[in-house]
Structure prediction request, 161 residues.
Amino acid sequence: MKHTISVLLQNKPGVLSRVTGLFSGRGFNIESLCVAQTLDPDVSNLTVVSRGDDNVIEQITKQLHKLIDVIKVVDITEKEYVEREMVLIRINAEAHTRAEVLRVIDIFRGKVVDVSAKSYAVEITGSASKIKAVIDILRPIGIKEIVRTGIIAMSRAAKTK
Prediction:
């Protein structure tokens, strides 16, 4: 099962290397990894997606807790959460396909971020399933290049009545 783990850690050199080393040293695969500074410049938020049964994920979280520079580890898969990913796609856009590409991008609420004589670079943001859907639709038109950010995720706020 896929798990999304949110990790708050010290924003210092080598910390990310130790976290990824923990995964590779134990044979765990990282499907997606995204890290950036929080409001506090001394703290970063790492979102990592990995697959495994409950025992594997429990072992991952326990090992992460043991790292000195790790502040907090939460498997947010167990809670309600919002996840997003961004993808940049360079697509063939010859004269006969330009309108179709623009229509598809509009349907997925994307935007064109670069134009050349023979291609468009487009930006799409959404869930992993939305990203997969747009890639599947654009593939027959001709995708030249794809760059993805990886998943970022945040727990939903508590519902108040």
Summary: The chain has two domains: 2-78, 83-154.
